[in-house]
Amino acid sequence: MTKQVVAGSSLWADAWKRWRRHRISVASAVVLTLVVAFCVLGPMLTEALLGHTYEAQNRALGAAPPSWVHPFGTDILGRDVMVRTMIGGRVSLAVALVATAVSLFVGVTYGALSGFLGGRVDAVMMRIVDLMLSTPYLLLVIVLMAVIPPSQVSIGGLDGSIILMFAALGLVSWLILARIVRGQVLALKEREFVEAARAIGVKPLTILFRHIVPNTLGPVIVYSTLTIPSVMLSEAFLSFLGLGIREPEASWGTLVNDGANAMSVFPWLLIFPGAIMTLTLFCLNFLGDGLRDALDPSASRT
Amino acid sequence: MIGHVVRRLAAILPLVLLLAFSTFLLLQLAPGGPFDAERNFPPEIQKQLEARFSLDAPWYEQFGTYIVGLADGTLPSMKRPGLTVGELIGSSFPVSLTLGTLAMGFALCLGITSGIIGAIRQNSIWDWSTMSVALIGISVPNFVLGPLLILIFALGLGWVPPARWEGLETMILPAVTLGLAYAAYIARLTRAGMLEVIRTDFVRTARAKGLAEHVVVIRHALRGALLPVITYLGPATARIITGTVVIEKIFQVPGLGYYFVQSALDRDYSMVLGVVCFYASILMVLNLLVDIAYTWLDPRVKLA
Fold first, then answer.
1. Cis ω on the peptide bond leading into residue B254 (within 30° of 0)?
2. B228: buried, middle or exposed (CB in 10 Å: 19+, 13-18, 0-12)?
3. Nearest 10 degrees: Cα torsion B302, A302, A140, B262
4. What residues of chain A have any CB closer than 8 angstroms to a CB in chain B?
């Protein structure tokens, strides 16, 4: 009789296998990598190959349609739209990532504490989340962005409007995450390994953050990937209204706004930044969908 | 049931007050006030203005004045002399309401219909194409879609006027732009719900007793399948409220949304406070209605 070796497969190995079968999600990840490379490396490449930079103006040219030298055309001030789309993409992606990181930090801490402490504290903490979820919080963000002057919050070389955006969007997008983490913690804290940790005298907060929280990672990753596109959309929404990123900084929101104002005469100003942004959002949504199917198979699919 | 509704309604007032207070706090903490902007008034006039809006009073008195003024509708707008906050909301909200209702109606009709088609013809070309369109619809931001639709249908084909708000034909583009993303999401929810319900025993029973297919789908299955859609209506309304802000800017619609942004930028504190309270109350009442609709659609759900 031959010995059969049964190879165990971890949660992550299973998830990886499931994710690779979700073709659109894998394709989205590839496209996203390309978009990120386009935004991060693109400006250097265009400078080397085509010889124009982000600030360079060619007033004589004015708003010119796409050409070989300016593949996305130029804007009214004679600036290259492709380089501006790349630089704007850097800002949009950075805002999305940092605000999501803020929401991750706040959401996980809040949810974990609420679920772990339980009882009345939990009830009050979750009521607050319900309350915030039931308000059109974007209205409050609009007020915040409108009344705080960006110059007061700029740190180092970063424009204040970008910092303000990190904070404002990070602080309102943690709610769902907090709920998810709380639910997970409520179930996990009754498990044997927690009891074992308690029995050998591990301090409660260490139990929570070293033993319980790492086990909530799956759903947390999934919902963070879904938070990124929604934060990106909010940033563009605010910038579009003139409440977000200000000149000379640019983001996809401000570019689309500029484009919308001039679209009847210079449609390329709207079409290129709009298309890149839509493509990115599309891929992020798909990536999130695929990850949810892979890491959180019990979650309902819609 | 009635007890629950009464309790929920009673909770709205303190919640709105709390929200009003947070907004007020935000405005207080922000540097600068409504009257120290571009024009430099002589100090006496500045004092007079601040006294008129009790900006010189301690914060609790100010807050009290605003709330009382909002409640009885006499709070004046700080930047539009001679008009009260109530009058301004009263004249511009109907426009936003029309826009939001049209968009929601459009989203529900299109979303539910294509969701049903997708589910009963699962894996057909119909299913595949509606769901692909829905996926794209979710990802296109409305401020990209709006200008694009203007470019194609107003400036290119000339079917509808590009902007303004006079008569039904000017309302089509704004409502479609606002509603499309929700239609897409509702289509996915309806399809998923329908696929689940259509396999249950009571649907099989309905079929077995010889009911016509459309009766089974519409009278029996749809009711259960719509539950996720109903739940989605709460958050969707909140987003449509903020969504109108952008749509009103793109299509130059004289509604409350864009007006709100302007008053935040102008630091018209009384107007900002008024609009936040107004929208929050509407939203909470709507959330309550959603919960009531839930018990009606699914008799198993009881409101505690």
1. no
2. middle
3. -120
4. 131, 133-136, 138-140, 142-144, 146-149, 152, 229, 233, 236-237, 240-243, 253, 256-257, 259-260, 263-264, 267, 270-271, 274, 277-278, 281-282, 285-286, 300-302
* Greater pLDDT, A8 or A211: A211
Question: Of A135, A142, A149, which is closest to B261 when you measure between CB atoms?
Answer: A142
Task: Give per-residue burial for B110-120: e unless 16+ CB within 10 Å, then b.
Answer: bbbebbbbbbb
CB B95 within 8 A of CB B165: yes
Q: Say which residue the tokens 């949660």 belong to.
A: A11
Residues 6+ apart with CB under 8 A from A177: A103, A104, A107, A108, A111, A220, A223, A224, A227
Please answer whether residues A184 and A230 qualify as being in contact, where contact means their C-beta atoms are separated by less than 8 angstroms: no
Chain B residue closest in CA terms to A272:
B144
Residue B75 burial by Cβ neighbours in a 10 Å radius (0-12, 13-18, 19+):
buried
* A8: region left, alpha or beta (phi > 0 left; psi from -120 to 50 alpha): beta
Backbone phi, then psi, for A155, in 5-degree steps?
-120, 125
Q: Note whether B272 contacts A143, CB cutoff 8 Å.
A: yes
Question: Quick check: B148 and B72 in contact, CB under 8 A?
Answer: no
- Judge whether residue A244 has pLDDT over 50: yes
CA B180, B185, B186 angle in degrees (round to 5)?
A: 95
Enumerate the residues of chain A whose CB falls inside 8 A of the CB of residue B244: none
Question: Distance between alpha carbon B180 and the CA centroid of its chain, in Å?
Answer: 14
Q: What is the arithmetic mean of pLDDT over B235-244? A: 76
Q: Which of A214, A216, A208 is nearest to A184 (CA)?
A: A216
Which positions in chain A touch B185 (Cβ < 8 Å)?
A: 302
ipTM of predicted assembly, 2 dp = 0.73
Q: Side-chain half-sphere of B61: how many Cα atoms within 13 Å?
A: 8
pLDDT band at A220 (very low <50, low <70, confident <90, very high): confident
Place of tokens 């719509």: B226
Exposure class string for A170-201: b at 16+ Cβ within 10 A, else e: bbbbbbbbbbbbbebbeebbeeeebeebeeee
Length of chain B: 304
Average pLDDT (B70-81) is 74
Contact present, A258 and A185 (Cβ < 8 Å): no
What are the tokens at A171? 């602080």
Contact B189 A302 (CB under 8 A): yes
Query: Alpha-carbon distance B196 to B229, whole Å?
Result: 14
Which residues in chain B have their CB less than 8 angstroms from residue A150's CB? none
| pLDDT attached to residue A53 | 67
Does the pLDDT at position B219 exceed 50? Answer: yes
Backbone CA torsion sign across A209, A212, A218, A219:
negative
Task: Report d(CA A290, CA B244) in Å as an integer.
Answer: 31
